[in-house]
Automatic annotation (TrEMBL):
<dbReference type="GO" id="GO:0016052">
    <property type="term" value="P:carbohydrate catabolic process"/>
</dbReference>
<dbReference type="InterPro" id="IPR017853">
    <property type="entry name" value="GH"/>
</dbReference>
<comment type="similarity">
    <text>Belongs to the glycosyl hydrolase 1 family.</text>
</comment>
<dbReference type="Pfam" id="PF00232">
    <property type="entry name" value="Glyco_hydro_1"/>
</dbReference>
<dbReference type="InterPro" id="IPR001360">
    <property type="entry name" value="Glyco_hydro_1"/>
</dbReference>
<dbReference type="GO" id="GO:0005829">
    <property type="term" value="C:cytosol"/>
</dbReference>
<keyword id="KW-0378">Hydrolase</keyword>
<protein>
    <submittedName>
        <fullName>Glycoside hydrolase family 1 protein</fullName>
    </submittedName>
</protein>
<dbReference type="GO" id="GO:0008422">
    <property type="term" value="F:beta-glucosidase activity"/>
</dbReference>
<keyword id="KW-0326">Glycosidase</keyword>
<dbReference type="InterPro" id="IPR033132">
    <property type="entry name" value="GH_1_N_CS"/>
</dbReference>
Length: 486
């Protein structure tokens, strides 16, 4: 099998809040990630509780300097070790690295007049280091790390002012990195607003009198992110003539349990909802059904004069997405065995294996997703997150024999190859995460994704030493042979 196109962008993905650490260094402000706790007593498949951050949690976190349970505060110390890590990525032959900029390093609270030079300089050094190794940066502007201050002093993204602050932050980044970064993503998994609103748009659900009011605020916040994303796309192109900007969504492919039309309808409704985000960011307008839904629910979404023109005028160049699992819908859901996932819980699919964290592994679903997205929009697609969380064990001889990960990637790469064979334009692939880091949902270190093992555990014990896993050389070979030997 050798059908990956020449120039295919092989690489890996990381996010600032999960790897950098250095949460209070060089003028950085607190972000929503710095208050997310590792909760060892919560079932690791109970993602709703793992993700949830209450006003009391925020207050406690503000007072605490702890870095053990607030694991994203230490990450894997990429902040100080990025040169060593990028050197390892280069050894694997990476063509690209997806990484994010922590907004709070540039604007610690979000609403300052002037950016923080130390933060700007840090990312400039990182991007220069990548360029030195001929690695193309793919930069996410917002990956679950908005300034905490904006969630407390404003209403998170439900406040219109946040649009201007984000656009200002984006413009500062484009100006500063225009010669270093060409590929940009605006919001990571923009669809996660409903799964974990605090982390995504800074909405504190307890601040609303009812569930419906919180839901309305989430839709407002989403609208503001759509507008901000379009404006950022506009400025990226004005400031960086060869810029390419993508949206980033979670592909939550849902299958019907049976051919019962009721099951098919339920799956269709889930998939339709999952298309809302790309419909807006790729087609440049809201589908009619969502406006009807707002009307039926009595929601007032502040679509200001000119907003719809902005959405229509500045659509994205490509579609990027994360893909980890598929879901199943059934009219008999209440009677069926359930599985977890950091996305949602659903009916167990008897044809699929499930990871230790309850994620249903489905390579064929990746092929289906690629075809589905490409056929819907005819825009290039890029898989920017995909990988297996596993509690890797270091053997007595110091090796990590992660054959399960090799199998996982091999199966998913074959799926991408088949989609390409089927006429889908795939730009690249960045695995999540190319180096072990702190889990977004559970704040664990033991949920490891990398080709590179990092010696630190769930309780921040360890040397932080990096070690190549078996999959390291395997992925190197995949890249060397452009996916022809899987
Ligand atoms: C995606 C996020 O949802 O899934 C990443 O964009 C995250 O930030 C990844 O790390 C894997 O999820 P988790 O919860 O296992 O870290």
């Amino acid at each position: 099998m050798a059908n990956f196109p020449k120039g295919f962008l092989w690489g890996g993905a990381i996010a600032a809040n999960q790897c950098e650490g250095a949460w209070n260094v060089d003028g950085k402000g607190m972000s929503v990630a710095d208050v997310a706790m590792f909760k060892p007593n919560v079932d690791k498949k109970d993602y709703v509780s793992q993700w949830h951050v209450s006003p009391q949690d925020i207050e406690n976190a503000r007072k605490s300097q702890d870095e053990v349970y607030y694991a994203k505060r230490h990450g894997i110390d990429f902040y100080h070790r990025y040169k060593e890590d990028i050197e390892l990525f280069a050894q694997m032959g990476f063509k690209t690295l997806r990484l994010s900029i922590a907004w709070t390093r540039i604007f610690p609270n979000g609403d300052e007049k002037h950016p923080n030079e130390a933060g700007l300089k840090y990312y400039e050094d990182v991007f220069r280091c990548l360029r030195k190794h001929h690695i193309e940066p793919l930069v996410t502007l917002s990956h679950y790390e908005m300034p905490l201050y904006l969630t407390e002093q404003y209403e998170g993204w439900a406040s219109r002012e946040v649009v201007d602050m984000f656009v200002k932050f984006s413009k500062v980044c484009f100006e500063r990195y225009k010669d270093l970064v060409k590929y940009w993503l605006t919001f990571n998994e923009i669809d996660s607003v409903f799964r974990h609103p605090f982390t995504t748009v800074g909405i504190i659900e307890e601040n609303y009198a009812s569930k419906e009011q919180a839901e309305e605020a989430i839709y407002k916040a989403l609208h503001h992110q759509f507008v901000a994303s379009s404006l950022a796309t506009r400025y990226a192109k004005e400031i960086i003539p060869d810029a390419k900007v993508g949206c980033m969504v979670t592909k939550t492919l849902t299958y019907p349990e049976t051919c019962n039309p009721e099951d098919i309808y339920l799956a269709l409704m889930d998939n339709r909802f999952n298309s809302l985000y790309t419909d807006v960011q790729v087609r440049g307008k809201y589908p009619l059904w969502i406006k009807k839904l707002w009307k039926d629910k009595g929601f007032q979404i502040p679509i200001l004069e000119g907003d719809e023109e902005i959405l229509a005028a500045h659509t994205v160049d490509f579609i990027s997405f994360s893909y980890y699992m598929s879901m199943v819908q059934s009219v008999h859901a209440s009677k069926r065995e359930k599985v977890g996932g950091n996305l949602t819980t659903g009916v167990k699919n008897p044809y699929l294996d499930t990871s230790e964290w309850g994620w249903q592994v489905d390579p064929k679903g990746l092929e289906i997703s690629l075809i589905d997205l490409y056929d819907r929009y005819q825009k290039p697609v890029w898989v920017v997150e995909n990988g297996l969380g596993y509690n890797d064990v270091v053997q007595e001889d110091g090796t990590i024999q992660d054959d399960y990960r090799i199998q996982y990637f091999s199966d998913h790469f074959k799926a991408i190859a088949r989609a390409i064979e089927n006429g889908v334009e795939v730009m690249g692939y960045t695995s999540w995460a190319c180096i072990d880091l702190v889990s977004a949902s559970t704040s664990q270190m033991s949920k490891r994704y990398g080709f590179i093992y990092v010696d630190v555990d769930d309780y921040n014990q360890g040397t932080y030493q990096r070690r190549k896993k078996k999959s390291f050389d395997w992925y190197k070979h995949v890249i060397e042979t452009n996916g022809s030997e899987l």
